[in-house]
Design brief:
The protein has five helices and ten strands, in the order H-H-E-E-E-E-H-E-E-E-H-E-E-H-E. The chain is an alpha+beta fold. Among the domains are: 120-185, wza like fold (2-Layer Sandwich), CATH 3.30.1950.10; 189-277, Outer membrane lipoprotein wza fold like (Roll), CATH 3.10.560.10. A five-stranded mixed β-sheet has the order 7-6-10-8-9, with helices on one face. It has a three-stranded antiparallel β-sheet with strand order 2-1-5, covered by helices on one side. The longest helix has 28 residues, at 45-72. 15% of the residues are buried.
Length: 284
């Protein structure tokens, strides 16, 4: 406390300090922050603390500017990829003896159902690591298989076809091929028969799965007999089978079957059968 009872005032740079700075020449080699030496009365705690904070701020700003300049001088190549993370790179897929990609213990190929025209199957070669491909059995009974080309699929089970494709792929393309074939959707039609001759609508007729389509039913589905049909000598021609069965011909009396109800004499048709309705020799 001063003698007059008032507390001393804490001052910053007084007018004396400012006059001293204006009249004093800076020392040789002095920085802008200490260009002049101030009188003793200039050094109060508040002023000293403010000056120290200013010096620290100036040094931080200089360091940040130096870092920015150093980064700006580093050459940048846009084609250079960024540094990769320190993780082990995945091994490249190989196809050599001894490589096992999956466990097939849970896969049981179908050895009962025989593929037919129009069936949709899924084909997967595990070594390719691709999703299964959807294929349809064409009207020729063939599948268009990648790498191999057209392969006969009709009248073969999925197991038989998979084994056949495995052998073909390992012959030229793979050391080991794991082939999976599964039935996705069966064609709801078993096949087609063809009605020709003296009927209202000649042409093919589809046979649904589990349908017992007889020659008499096929004629009715074709619109019935035409005006000059010979109903007593309807022929059913069955081509030779792939299993070695000989060609067969049946002659049916549709007057007995359709008009007299002797359905036990009718013939159940098979895919690709021909039903031929001849004309009468004398039309009246």
């Amino acid at each position: 406390m001063r003698a007059d009872g008032e507390a001393p005032k804490v001052r910053g740079r007084s007018s004396v300090c400012r006059e001293h700075d204006e009249n004093r020449e800076p020392r040789l080699g002095a920085s802008p922050l200490n260009a002049g030496v101030w009188p003793r009365e200039c050094y109060n705690p508040l002023f000293v603390q403010t000056r120290r904070t200013t010096v620290k701020t100036a040094w931080i700003a200089l360091l940040l500017m130096a870092g920015a300049v150093a980064l700006a001088q580093v050459p940048w190549n846009s084609n250079t990829p960024p540094p990769a993370a320190n993780f082990p790179a995945p091994a490249a897929p190989t196809n050599h003896p001894g490589t096992v990609y999956t466990n097939l213990s849970g896969y049981v190929p179908d050895d009962k159902y025989k593929l037919r025209i129009g069936d949709r199957v899924s084909l997967q070669i595990l070594e390719d690591r691709d999703l299964p491909k959807s294929l349809v059995v064409a009207d020729s009974g063939e599948l268009d298989v990648p790498y191999v080309g057209r392969v006969t699929a009709a009248d073969k089970t999925c197991k038989q076809l998979a084994n056949e494709l495995k052998a073909l792929l390992e012959r030229e393309y793979y050391y080991r091929a794991s082939v999976i074939i599964a039935l996705d959707a069966a064609n709801r039609f078993l096949g087609r028969i063809y009605v020709w001759g003296q009927v209202r609508n000649q042409g093919p007729i589809d046979i649904a799965v589990n349908e017992n389509l007889t020659a008499g039913k096929a004629i009715l589905r074709a619109g019935g007999f035409a005006d000059f049909a010979n109903k007593k000598r309807v022929k059913v021609v069955r081509a030779a089978g792939a299993d070695g069965a000989a060609r067969q011909n049946f002659e049916l009396n549709m007057v007995d079957i359709l008009e007299k109800g002797k359905t036990d004499k009718d013939v159940v048709l098979q895919p690709d059968d021909f039903v031929i309705v001849p004309s009468r020799l004398i039309n009246f």
